[in-house]
From TrEMBL, chains A, D:
GO terms for biological process: iron-sulfur cluster assembly. One of its GO terms (molecular function) is iron ion binding. It comes from the Bacteria. This is SUF system NifU family Fe-S cluster assembly protein. Pfam families: NifU_N. NCBIfam families: SUF_scaf_2. Residues 9-134 form the NIF system FeS cluster assembly NifU N-terminal domain. Belongs to the NifU family.
TrEMBL record, chains B, C:
Residues 47-417 form the Aminotransferase class V domain. Keywords: Pyridoxal phosphate, Transferase. It comes from Aerophototrophica crusticola. Its EC number is 2.8.1.7. The keyword Transferase applies. One of its GO terms (molecular function) is pyridoxal phosphate binding. It comes from the Bacteria. This is cysteine desulfurase. InterPro entries: Aminotrans_V_dom, Cys_dSase_SufS, PyrdxlP-dep_Trfase, PyrdxlP-dep_Trfase_major, PyrdxlP-dep_Trfase_small. PANTHER family: CYSTEINE DESULFURASE, CYSTEINE DESULFURASE 1, CHLOROPLASTIC.
């Protein structure tokens, strides 16, 4: 019945969805933002710790959401640790392209963590599900808002 | 009772005849379509259970709108030429039909708006700004749609009214004790509560609520958006001062809604929007306005939409709202029972009197994921907050899955929903 | 340039091809109908010259709306199911088409309203209440439609703004000297003037007017209701801050209008109406709103109407607004010349730059009587004040007869008008 | 071309339309009202003189309008002189029925001036022209408003 949903809901996603890594509010952090997807009721909070070297020392999140958004948030936390903010942004840009555009339309976001990009491939299935793109990108929008000092991110305003 | 013209047989059918849902379905062209067709894979038959968001349209409505445009269209009112007269007659006939549908005393009680949302904004800005002052209480409930929340918040920011909220009991019923207490203890000037909840299905005892409100000198506004579609409604029997609904949920077009108001209430309300058609005379110094309902209808009205709504009302009244209600109640009972087979499934909203709306959640699977899965099986349900975020908070859920039934739905479709949900559960293991 | 799909031949037609009005007419089902048929008497072919009130719809528009309802309809936004996605895509595509039609920088500049009238009310209440204070001047003109007068009067009553009015010269041109003087001497915060008059046909020099207004720090709002239908419009070239039009005059459906706004202008405006779809999160304490344009679109949007408007834009752009303009200008010249044959006929509005609209009076015969007579000959014109009462006063007439031409009108139809008017004159002797 | 318009625009109407009787504001009067038909831009004023016996001693009107409304006003002024207010009202009621309803639906307005009713027959052609009914009844609405002390009458609000 659901054959073509297996592309979207791959094992990795179901696993991260059920057992999200780096879940829960940490004791200490120095950047945070709340992300809101009014479309499905998802609300997540991302907690960032920027180290004295300017790199991301820790990322955690909490909140609830669908399998896609939880998995995306969980995967994101795993791959941002140790990155410079601008590396994180580049990864977000490339990931956003992956979720929304055909490969030939991806823009150049500078040098990327290829291993991270490979892992993020599991989420690229959302491209076939336009209504689910926001689920996949919510955590990233929120992380980006936290980096820029915005308290709230909403995917709702990013297009319709 | 006569059946709508689009039904196939010529034999008159009385309301005692059993409700023939298969014949009704033939009136709705979209119901025969397949969804998710792809090359090499056949599509799935559409199972449309998103009626509370918007209903599908019968052939009679589609044809009434096309027919108007093919034969009789022009701008209405104030035109002396043939088409303008035709168009005006066809459009204004719907005011009579709406009056009859609601058992309003007269066509003059019927204001056409853009949708239900605009009707609430009209009341908030016109009635609210005139009759409410700082500290006056508008009494809402936790089961309101955003359309009946946000306009009052905007008014609150402008004028300092107070918003108080009647709680909802665990089964999804309105807390009537709290309602009565609020009327007794607060300076309630307006009760603005839904007749039927778009999430819980709960049908509120509006007659009793209006009586209590009037005993305490409050005006009452009911949101009939989910009520008129499922049952006969009589605004005089209810004794509603103001009553709102939206055409697209009543098998009619988008772009038109209805505000019913008692004559004295409408007469006391100043215009909302200004423009053509709602004025008597205009100079730059001074403009005089027409009487209600025309005073509230600025600019070119929703002509095509009015004609479509008229056809929709003809359609549902020919089927009979009693018959529709009986059919949907059977479906509701059946679907509820079948959904209860599914372990971990929680139905939110189990009030004794309900419209055919079932909101549910499933342990461990997010509604959004359920929505995507059942959609692939051809089943259209709505997932999310249903424009009722405070109610979601009340029940401690971020979102729900909502199956809402209409006059053309069948038990087999309820089965399809149940099977799709079961398969989804199996997938997530 | 490609022709609309409903045109009969498959051969591509370039914009250099002569404008084939007979083929265009075949796209409009209503144009073949007879009016005033009675038993024993054949009807008269319809000569529809009431386009400024509302235009007829091509088959492509009718089919787009029916087709949506037969195959792809559901409520838009926030739905994960197949039909909701289809419907959303079809509806939102029109935002891009409107942006392209007006050469707006982005789809985010386009707000959908109920009609032009609502767009003015939106600007008056949202922008006006935010940026205008007691004594600030809103500069209108004597040729405004009531839709661009009454909302400012309502605002004046609420906040004490001042309304000043630019005169109209005897030929129906705007008095540009007076316009410039008003900007120099008054505290003008907003210029709200029509791009083209629905009575006089006058096309105002909006580019120059915007430049002057901006030099004096005023914001400009143009009423494009009668402009977008007759010519290409480029809001960026004009440098309009806000621009309004209504779909039903552009061969599209009733129930939808457009407000274009510069991003900075829209971003600074608070919500107008509250409800679903325009919010980010709602609690009873605090609600946050979405960005423009969605913040201004409360409740279920005009979905069917949006799809119809999209088809209308496709249709007129396929014909080419340049080509339409050229065709209509030829007609205007021809009809003007022919009407001038009639002794005692006075044309009101003879500005050098005009849209194809001719208002006239005839000595000794009231416009209303003319209207009834020409209607019997099958010719639909509008008679009355045309929602522009101050302009009637300015020209010392109680009413006029107005013939307004559209993309499907012909010289033969202008002849029919002239013959009918002549016969009317003969009748009254 | 206009054969069936001859029922509406009979000679009497054209005559009264062109040469309205009792036209112009009188020097003295004791009741007046302004009537407004926004549909076509007609504006008329009716001036009534009620005598000490309570009867209508004089009726005049001014303002502009189409042939139908001018003729109707002119005819009205001719027939109201000497009538009691309630006779005028009865006539208005009967005339309104004549303009809007089939004969079998006319209601009983009490004893009527039959001669006046005969004269008013020339206007009954408007029944076939719904958009022109207000033209025929404007003067009567206005007269009625004057009798009742209302300063303004508008046909616009009487139905659509
Ligand atoms: C110049 C002008 N502005 C505004 C309007 C109002 O349009 P709508 O009635 O669709 O709101 C019209 C048409 O009636 C018009 O001609
Ligand atoms: C109970 C209720 N009230 C109001 C509305 C608003 O209707 P509309 O969006 O047509 O204005 C809805 C539907 O969305 C509803 O379900």
């Amino acid at each position: 019945m659901f054959d073509d949903l297996r592309d979207l809901y791959q094992e990795v996603i179901l696993d991260h969805g059920k057992n999200p890594r780096n879940f829960g509010k940490p004791d200490g952090f120095n950047r945070t933002a709340r992300g809101d997807n009014p479309m499905c009721g998802d609300k997540i909070t991302v907690y960032l710790t920027l180290g004295s070297d300017g790199r991301i020392a820790d990322v955690r999140f909490d909140g609830r959401g669908c399998a896609i958004s939880q998995a995306s948030a969980s995967l994101m936390t795993e791959m941002l640790k140790g990155k410079e903010p601008k590396e994180a942004e580049a990864l977000f840009g490339a990931f956003h392209d992956m979720c929304t555009k055909d490969e030939e339309e991806w823009t150049d976001h500078g040098p990327l963590d290829e291993e991270a990009m490979d892992k993020l491939q599991v989420l690229s299935g959302v491209r076939e599900f336009p209504m689910r793109v926001k689920c996949a990108t919510l955590a990233w929008h929120t992380m980006n808002a936290a980096l820029h000092g915005d308290p709230v991110a909403s995917t709702e305003n990013a297009g319709f | 009772m006569t059946r709508p013209a689009t039904l196939l047989s010529d034999a008159p059918v009385t309301s005692n005849a059993p409700y023939d849902v298969e014949r009704v379905r033939q009136d709705f062209p979209i119901l025969t379509r397949l969804v998710h067709e792809r090359k090499g894979r056949p599509g799935k038959p559409l199972v449309y259970l998103d009626n509370a968001a918007s209903a599908q349209k019968p052939r009679a409505v589609i044809d009434a709108m096309s027919g108007l445009l093919e034969r009789d269209y022009a701008n209405v009112h104030r035109g002396v030429h043939f088409l303008s007269q035709r168009s005006t007659d066809l459009y204004e006939a719907t005011r009579d039909k709406v009056a009859k549908l609601l058992n309003a005393p007269s066509r003059e009680n019927i204001v056409f708006t853009r949708n239900a949302t605009e009707a609430f904004n009209l009341v908030a800005q016109s009635w609210g700004r005139t009759f409410l002052k700082t500290g006056d209480v508008v009494l809402l409930s936790y089961m309101e749609h955003h359309a009946n929340i946000v306009p009052w918040q905007l008014l609150r920011d402008q004028t300092g009214i107070r918003i108080e909220v009647v709680p909802v009991l665990d089964d999804g019923s309105l807390d009537l004790d709290a309602y009565e207490k609020a009327l007794k203890t607060l300076a309630v000037k307006l009760v603005a509560i839904t007749h039927s909840s778009n999430v819980l299905g709960t049908v509120n005892p509006v007659r009793q609520m209006a009586r209590l409100a009037h005993e305490h000198g409050a005006t009452v506004l009911f949101d009939g958006s989910q009520a008129v579609v499922h049952r006969p409604v009589d605004v005089q029997a209810i004794d509603a001062d103001l009553y709102v609904f939206t055409a697209h949920k009543l098998y009619g077009p988008t772009g038109i809604g209805v505000l019913y108001g008692k004559k004295a209430v409408l007469d006391a309300m100043p215009p909302y929007q200004g423009g053509g058609d709602m004025i008597s005379t205009v100079t730059f110094e001074k403009t005089t306005f027409r009487e209600a309902p025309y005073r509230f209808e600025a600019g070119t009205p929703p002509i095509i939409e009015g004609v479509g709504l008229g056809a929709a009302i003809d359609y549902v009244t020919a089927l009979g709202l009693d018959a529709i209600q009986a059919h949907e109640q059977r479906l509701l009972a059946y679907a509820t029972e079948r959904l209860r087979e599914i372990e971990g499934l929680r139905i939110i909203g189990t009030a004794p009197e309900k419209a055919a709306i079932i909101s549910f959640t499933i342990d461990g699977i997010h509604p959004h994921d359920i929505g995507t899965f059942v959609d692939r099986a051809g089943v259209a349900v709505r997932v999310g907050r249903h424009c009722a975020e405070p109610l979601m908070d009340r029940f401690g859920v971020g979102a729900t899955c909502r199956a809402s039934f209409g006059l053309y739905n069948t038990e087999a479709e309820a089965d399809a929903l149940v099977e799709a949900v079961k398969a989804t559960k199996a997938f997530f293991g």
